[in-house]
From TrEMBL:
Protein name per Swiss-Prot or TrEMBL: Pyruvate, phosphate dikinase
EC number: 2.7.9.1
Alphabetically ordered keywords of this record: ATP-binding, Kinase, Magnesium, Metal-binding, Nucleotide-binding, Pyruvate, Transferase
GO molecular function: ATP binding; kinase activity; metal ion binding; pyruvate, phosphate dikinase activity
PANTHER family, per the entry: PHOSPHOENOLPYRUVATE DIKINASE-RELATED, PYRUVATE, PHOSPHATE DIKINASE 1, CHLOROPLASTIC
Stated family: Belongs to the PEP-utilizing enzyme family.
Species for this entry: Tardiphaga robiniae
Active-site residues annotated for this sequence: H467 (tele-phosphohistidine intermediate), C843 (proton donor)
Positions annotated to bind substrate: R573, R629, E757, G778, T779, N780, D781
SUPFAM superfamilies linked to this entry: Glutathione synthetase ATP-binding domain-like (SSF56059), Phosphoenolpyruvate/pyruvate domain (SSF51621), Phosphohistidine domain (SSF52009)
Lineage per the UniProt record: Bacteria, Pseudomonadati, Pseudomonadota, Alphaproteobacteria, Hyphomicrobiales
Length: 883
């Protein structure tokens, strides 16, 4: 078999299309080599070897070794060096890379091939002992950490002690002889702690590192990351071995990271950071504060350190030429890693860059406008779920800002929460329903769960490309990084800025768009939707077939939804109007009434309130369809709970509180969700449905007069299981419509339909459609009743079901295609058979879930309805489903 793919010297055996085999990094290194870009030569051991490795008790295919030897020789030929050569040693990096990028998940070893002999040769050849030993100590630390499992901080302790003794403050204070001594101490520590000398044989080093990369595929960090990002374990990782180039060879050398466009805003301008006289991870790790790449960016940031454009104009020009070429070639924004060795630029990585939702929209729209991609490409490129980020509130600009510190605006958006200093604590508090801000000196892959749990992240160290910044942007969470004036004391559980001290549990706000840290909770406002957002949504609307409505009960919901492009209300729950504090007493009066007359008296009080709610809603919706559901929740939920509440209602009703308490007890239920609710209430007390219908129709006529547009009213009966239930209520509704039209002289445009949310209703849909004029699938209740689980109680075991693979996803989030979905399909088919033009939609939470929207498109529904903030998500998901 072929187990090694070489690249370098202007050609490569691999290419970008072989990503599955070579991993993202390996495939793109090959692609760049094929494009003739300056890439240090090397080779990639494909993911097939990783698969073999795990299938065969962590061993390799037998031809691997000889193929690696051959490839190393070829690299030696191109570079004019030899691996293990004592005079002119070839040094390499060993890099991991899976199909999907897993940033920071698996570690890279640099400067491999150094030992006590070759380090001297390196010093000789470069004429720079400091450089040679700086490289060696980096190699020893990385190799020990990744391969020998000897932790980093041991070396940091040794280094700190050494610096203290010498009175040094910075690493750059150390000269060649200092590093020679330290390397000695490092090796001693390794020998002492691991019981073995640090390996001197370059081949042993190489196989050690290769094995460690493959083994790291199964480490906890990688496993967690895969779980969070749905990356299958079977993919495996590839390993790339590549000739080293040195960014730490003095003042004409550097290393950096650059994006072809700004990953935060999407602005079409080269964006990035670099560090002079540094290697590899220094930029990302935030050990020193990096410098800007372009002069524009330097001026904007007010940095007093030279930009790459000014300090290394030749290399900058070359980088500009290359990034322009790469972006055209890949037809997307690129995230690149490069190193400058003594003035010469080398490309070490390129990939499609991670970006905020805001940036991804701007970039897609601008690429389409530049003619690089099509409008449909642009629509298909945006992850609908990511729009969520854009639709979140930001700090009200008119509020007073008590800015306690300013760091880097690493990931946009604002969030408030209690301070926590550890990721475990963040996860714990979040589970308790608290909102927290994770405050760390810096983050590492071990913090992923804490970052997930937090509303936002604040770090005191690290740049715009630090771990915290990259991960937060990916998660769509606000992040302020590199906030150097904040001192964190993990031991005491405090952070201090100037003289002010904040404890764990104190509330702060971070604004990741500008880098502010503020004390206290800030008022937030609705997001402003940018021009590119509107453009993209317009393109999406052109292709989608599904209509998108909103689940909204209040005028405020309706306004938000219209702004986000909703084409009607798919579900207005009237009970929210009943639960309002000032009305609940009257509602209780109605429920606890002993006879129809008393009930009608209470209903008469509710009627004007209910009518007023609807008038406003209808006015906002200006003629768009509005589905109003009659009272649905169990009566149980409206009952007075306390003695005080009972007495209060008794006083108004002028009855004995004891009698009332008895009646309330009679109505109490063990299992209210399967109890006296939905249409069952209307069947028992038709006057309630009548009151609601009257309020609706009177409001529709009034709103119609005011706006000049007839309201598209759809009256919806919930929770039916038989046609008869529906017919009884429909007759009352129709009769009410007739009287209201007669009384007011107005005209009504309305239909009466039903919610299909119980399995029996799906099966009997054909019969129900004889009289029902529309169906709206209530997939929340349908999921509960199909699975026989309650959404409120399922949390305790659903997680286990998903972890064990019994269920692929939470069926309350993504519609269960094979069970619930099948029932919906049956319902649609039988309903349409009876009434071909019946309007069908869904109105569960699923209406805003992209995967469920795709399902609704496939089975040919007319519309989905979802919560206001999810309307744009549904519009985009519907467009992608239609592409
Ligand atoms: P990650 O996947 O964590 O980004 P990489 O394999 O890209 O890890 O390597 C980490 C760092 O080491 C990068 O910044 C890269 O620029 C640097 N690096 C990797 N290989 C080489 C090399 N051959 N020469 C110089 N620097 C290298
Ligand atoms: Mg990298
Ligand atoms: Mg329901």
């Amino acid at each position: 078999g072929k187990w090694v793919y070489s690249f370098g010297g202007g050609k490569a055996e691999g290419k970008a299309g072989l990503r599955d085999l070579l991993g993202g990094k390996g495939a793109n290194l090959a692609e760049m080599a094929n494009l003739g870009l300056p890439v240090p030569p090397g080779f990639t051991i494909p993911t097939s070897v990783c698969t073999y490795f795990y299938a065969n008790g962590k061993s390799y295919p037998k031809e691997l070794q000889s193929q690696v030897e051959k490839a190393l020789e070829a690299v030696g030929k191109i570079t004019g060096k030899g691996f293990g050569d004592e005079k002119n040693p070839l040094l390499v990096s060993v890099r991991s890379g899976a199909r999907a990028s897993m940033p920071g998940m698996m570690d890279t070893v640099l400067n491999l091939g150094l030992n006590d002999t070759t380090v001297e040769a390196l010093a000789e050849l470069s004429g720079d002992k400091r450089f040679a030993y700086d490289s060696y100590r980096r190699f020893i630390t990385m190799y020990s950490d990744v391969v020998l499992g000897f932790e980093h901080h041991h070396f940091e302790d040794i280094l700190d002690t050494y610096k203290d003794n010498k009175g040094y403050t910075l690493d750059t204070d150390l000269d060649g002889d200092d590093w020679v001594k330290l390397v000695g101490q490092y090796k001693e520590a390794v020998a002492r702690e691991t019981g073995k000398d640090f390996p001197q044989d370059p081949h042993e080093q190489l196989w050690g590192a290769v094995g460690a990369v493959f083994s790291s595929w199964m480490n906890t960090r990688a496993v967690t990351y895969r779980r969070l990002h749905d990356i299958p374990e079977s993919w495996g990782t590839a390993v790339s071995v590549q000739a080293m180039v040195f960014g730490n060879m003095g003042e004409t050398s550097a290393t950096g990271v650059a994006f072809t466009r700004n990953p935060s805003t999407g602005e079409s301008k080269l964006y990035g950071e670099f560090l002079i006289n540094a290697q590899g991870e220094d930029v990302v790790a935030g050990i020193r504060t990096p410098q800007d790449i372009t002069e524009d960016a330097r001026i904007e940031s007010g940095s007093d350190k030279a930009s790459m454009e000014a300090a290394m104009p030749e290399a900058f020009k070359e980088l500009t030429r290359i990034y322009t070429q790469l972006e055209k070639h890949y037809r997307d924004m690129q995230d690149m890693e490069f190193t400058i060795e003594q003035g010469r630029l080398w490309m070490l990585q390129t990939r499609n860059g991670k970006r905020t939702a805001k940036a991804s929209i701007r970039i897609a729209v601008e690429l389409a406008n530049e003619g690089v991609i099509s409008q449909k490409d642009a629509v298909s490129r945006i992850d609908p779920a990511s729009l969520d980020q854009l639709l979140h509130p930001t700090i009200d600009p008119s509020a007073n800002r008590d800015v306690i510190a300013t760091g880097l605006p690493a990931s946009p958006g604002a969030a408030s929460g209690e301070i926590v200093f550890s990721s475990d604590e963040a996860a714990k508090l979040q589970a308790d329903g608290k909102k927290v801000i994770l405050v760390r000196v810096e983050t590492s892959p071990e913090d992923i769960h804490g970052m997930h749990a937090a509303e936002g992240i604040l770090t005191t160290r690290g740049g715009m490309t630090s771990h915290a910044a990259v991960v937060a942007r990916g998660m769509g969470k606000p992040c302020v990084s590199g906030c150097g004036t904040v001192r964190v004391d993990y031991g005491r559980g405090t952070m201090s800025i100037g003289g002010r001290v904040f404890k764990a549990g104190d509330v702060i706000t971070i604004d990741g768009s500008v880098g502010h840290v503020l004390s206290g909770r800030m008022p937030m406002i609705e997001p402003e939707l940018s021009g590119e957002f509107a453009t993209l949504m317009g393109w999406a609307d052109k292709v989608r077939k599904l209509k998108v409505r909103v689940n909204g009960d209040t005028p405020e919901d309706a306004r938000t939804a219209i702004k986000y492009g909703a084409e009607g209300i798919g579900l207005c729950r009237t009970e929210h109007m009943f639960f309002e504090e000032t009305r609940i007493r009257t509602v209780r009066e109605m429920i606890l009434a002993e006879d129809e007359q008393a009930r009608r008296a209470a209903l008469a009080k509710l009627l004007p309130m209910q009518r007023a709610d609807f008038v406003e809603l209808f006015e906002i919706m200006k003629g768009l369809p509005v589905t109003i559901r009659l009272l649905d929740p169990p009566l149980h939920e409206f009952l007075p709970h306390t003695q005080g509440e009972v007495e209060e209602v008794a006083r108004v009703m002028n009855t004995d509180p004891r009698k009332l308490a008895d009646r309330a007890r009679d109505l109490a239920e063990f299992n209210p969700m399967l109890g006296f609710r939905g249409v069952r209430i209307a069947i028992a007390y038709p006057e309630i449905a009548e009151m609601q219908a009257r309020a609706l129709f009177e409001a529709a006529i009034e709103a119609g007069k005011r706006t000049g547009e007839q309201v598209g009213l759809e009256v919806m009966v919930p929770l039916i299981v038989t046609k008869m239930e529906f017919d009884l209520i429909k007759a009352r509704i129709d009769a009410t419509a007739v009287s209201v039209m007669k009384e007011t002289g107005g005209k009504l445009n309305y239909s009466v339909g039903t919610m299909i949310e119980l399995p029996r209703a799906c099966l009997l849909a054909g019969e129900i459609a004889e009289t029902a004029e529309f169906f709206s699938f209530g997939t929340n209740d349908l999921t509960q009743t199909t699975f026989g689980i309650s959404r409120d109680d399922a949390a305790s075991f659903l997680g286990t079901y998903i972890a064990k693979g019994i269920l692929p996803v939470d069926p309350f989030i993504t519609v269960d295609r094979s069970g619930v979905g099948e029932l919906v399909k049956i319902g649609v088919a039988r309903g349409r058979k009876t009434r071909p033009d019946i309007k069908v939609g869904i109105c569960g939470e699923h209406g805003g879930d992209p995967a469920s929207v795709a399902f609704c498109h496939e089975i040919g529904l007319d519309y989905v309805s979802c919560s206001p903030y999810r309307v744009p998500i549904a519009r985009l998901a519907a467009a992608q489903a239609a592409l």
